[in-house]
Amino acid sequence: MADEALFLLLHGEMVAGLYRAAEQGEGENGRCTTKLESMGFRVGQGLIERFTKDTARFKDELDIMKFICKDFWTTVFKKQIDNLRTNHQGIYVLQDNKFRLLIQMSAGKQYLEHAPKYLAFTCGLIRGGLSNLGIKSIVTAEVSSMPACKFQVMIQKM
């Protein structure tokens, strides 16, 4: 349980620190999101490498997405994705109804505009994990009511 608290605190401080530096003129806000996404990408690559070293090969894209939603998400966020949807044409929607990184700030609607800052790292995490499994993708996130969020994964054919 202590490692979960440390992760939440570290993530919050990464976001706050990058945006604070941007406000002081050391960067721009758009670059903050890119930096967070890049950090998440690298972490996702490393975690997937570690988690899949003893697993059998995946049959297809859907199997990989199921692994991300169950095993990967459970290890990182202590719960499975609540819903996985696909159009069977390379677009997947992962829905988490109580996303851990948004729970602390979900008390009021005034924080809804700040939610994307806290999702960039996780978008990178998903994209990095998929990249290490041989899937090139674009990952975006949306929040309509906190702490629920949806991650849209668009698979890019090579």
From TrEMBL:
As for family, the record states: Belongs to the TRAPP small subunits family. BET3 subfamily.
Q: Which domain of life is it from?
A: Eukaryota
Q: Which UniProt keywords apply?
A: Endoplasmic reticulum, Golgi apparatus, Neurogenesis
**Some GO term, biological process aspect, for this entry: which one?**
endoplasmic reticulum to Golgi vesicle-mediated transport
Question: What is the name attached to this protein's record?
Answer: Trafficking protein particle complex subunit 6B
An example of a Gene Ontology cellular component annotation for this protein is: trans-Golgi network
Where is this protein localized, as stated in its record? Endoplasmic reticulum; Golgi apparatus, cis-Golgi network
**UniProt keyword annotation of ATP-binding present:** no
Q: Which Pfam families match?
A: TRAPP
Species name:
Hylia prasina (green hylia)
Please classify the protein's predominant subcellular localization into one broad category.
endoplasmic reticulum
- InterPro entries xref list: NO_sig/Golgi_transp_ligand-bd (IPR024096), TRAPP_component (IPR007194), TRAPPC6/Trs33 (IPR037992)
Tell me if Endoplasmic reticulum is a UniProt keyword of this record: yes
Role according to the record: Component of a transport protein particle (TRAPP) complex that may function in specific stages of inter-organelle traffic. Specifically involved in the early development of neural circuitry, likely by controlling the frequency and amplitude of intracellular calcium transients implicated in the regulation of neuron differentiation and survival.
